[in-house]
Amino acid sequence: MTQIAEPETARTAASSETVHHWIGGRRVAGTSGRRGSVFDPATGALAREVDFASVAEVDAAVAAAKAAFPAWRATSLSKRTEIMFRIRNLVEAHRRELAALLTSEHGKVPSDALGEIARGIENLEFATGIPSLMKGGFSEQVSTGVDVYQIRQPLGVAAGITPFNFPAMVPMWMFANAIACSNTFVLKPSEKDPSASLYLAELLKEAGVPEGVFNVINGDKVAVDRILEHPDIAAVSFVGSTPIARYIYETGTRHGKRVQALGGAKNHMIVLPDADVDMAADAAVSAGYGSSGERCMAIATVVAVGTAADPLVDAIAARLPKIKVGPGSDPASEMGPLVTRQHRDKVASYLDSAATQGATVVADGRAHPLYRQSEGFFLGTSLIDHVTPAMDCYRDEIFGPVLTVTRVGTYEEALQPVNDNPYGNGTAIFTRDGGAARQYQFDVNVGMVGINVPVPVPVAFYSFGGWKASLFGDLHMYGPEGIQFYTRAKIVTARWPDPGTSKVDLGFPRTR
Ligand code: NAD
Prior knowledge:
Blueprint: E1 21-23, E2 26-28, E3 35-40, E4 45-51, H1 55-74, H2 77-93, H3 95-105, H4 110-127, H5 130-133, E5 137-143, E6 146-154, E7 157-161, H6 169-180, E8 184-188, H7 195-207, E9 214-216, H8 221-229, E10 233-239, H9 242-254, E11 258-262, E12 267-271, H10 277-289, E13 299-305, H11 309-319, H12 341-356, E14 360-363, H13 369-373, E15 382-385, H14 392-395, E16 402-408, H15 411-420, E17 423-424, E18 426-430, H16 434-443, E19 448-451, E20 467-468, E21 471-472, H17 479-485, E22 487-495
Parallel strand pairs: 7-8, 7-10, 8-9, 10-11, 12-13, 12-18, 13-16, 15-16, 18-19
Antiparallel strand pairs: 1-2, 3-4, 5-6, 6-22, 11-21, 14-15, 17-20
Bound molecules: nicotinamide-adenine-dinucleotide.
């Protein structure tokens, strides 16, 4: 594979310019007069504004995508493959600028931002296999002189609506397969950190993606609602919180669209008494506090079985003071700020409700100096022990650097709350007992399971999807199910009889 060299001079990652839309292969300034604020979470300062689209502006993006579809659909598989390779190489070559954008608007530290981009690139690499992925099937001689074959064709215009926590990876989860399958695409990124999408749009253009094939509409509910009802949009992919995912699924399907809507999570990590305590503690801390807990696959709650509890809580607590919380501009920082002040304060509020409801706050992130001294949206690491399923800190998706511990006596008591939980995105079990791990994989009502792996995000050649309130729709995202989502099957039944061999037959066609 051709590697594109790292650019010598990094582009300015972020500017104070307003973030516009991307329609028909160029930046288009908003005309609605409505805008949102984008903050630098590390300083708390207003970094720039983002245009909020009107219905007419969404319509313009969809019209550009619709107009581009016939030619893109007619573009050969080999040409599309070549373009997907170029996109992959350009994103790889510009990953540092893209990572800087993520840090400046989301707050995640560079190592985490680069990890997100690497997982997005996996999806671009998967999509370079589109000639094999779109292969159909052929059955010869299903009846005398009759063949049947299946081809997969694109849907037309597809839309993606994405969350703040993965501003580069989640769009790549969607558009890589969507455009490789020769759909055209309209992306509505999170209004909290929209710049990465515009940057990706420029890279796609540079890679040779024709005008109108990839469009970005910035905005809020006005834009989302127009996408959901637009007659020229065939399919909607969504990733975000559960209430909005449910709304997207119900509204989009009511308007006749194919919809996959991935929602929130509450991921449990079961630790059996035979687990290696240090390994389990390292995993719980990495998966609980990485990206400040703002990951849909973050471990939110540890379920400690029997004698595992005391040493595990001690081992987790011992690791917390060593985590370096700070801005992504400091290379030593391991955990950045939260995305907004409002979100940071909501996360912190669970520490009070937990104490009031009878839990033990082992570590309170508000004690971190940056919580009080910085204008940035910082919160240190928090650990809450003796949490029960009735408490708010257990029931709600906190989405911050707060890890809770629930103590149970047996494996069965550990399984019960996981299966009773309304969410079913990810889960992990830590044990040295292969039989127990296999039983958990068999028993648990969750879509993605890790065995001694705390963040089991599937690689791009499998698909990503939770169960229960973590996904509305039938198909998981990216990987083989992504190809299925962005294409529909056409079955052709064909024969080439010699003239003079036909007769009238009003009976239902039979193969025998
Ligand atoms: P969110 O639901 O607030 O927003 C997601 C998208 O929906 C954004 O583009 C936003 O502009 C739009 N939106 C928000 N409110 C809307 C409304 N009332 N009507 C129409 N559109 C609306 O989610 P978020 O806060 O950006 O992201 C965090 C959430 O996403 C968490 O719940 C997290 O678990 C979830 N998430 C899930 C996955 C997954 O794969 N299951 C992955 C990442 C994030």
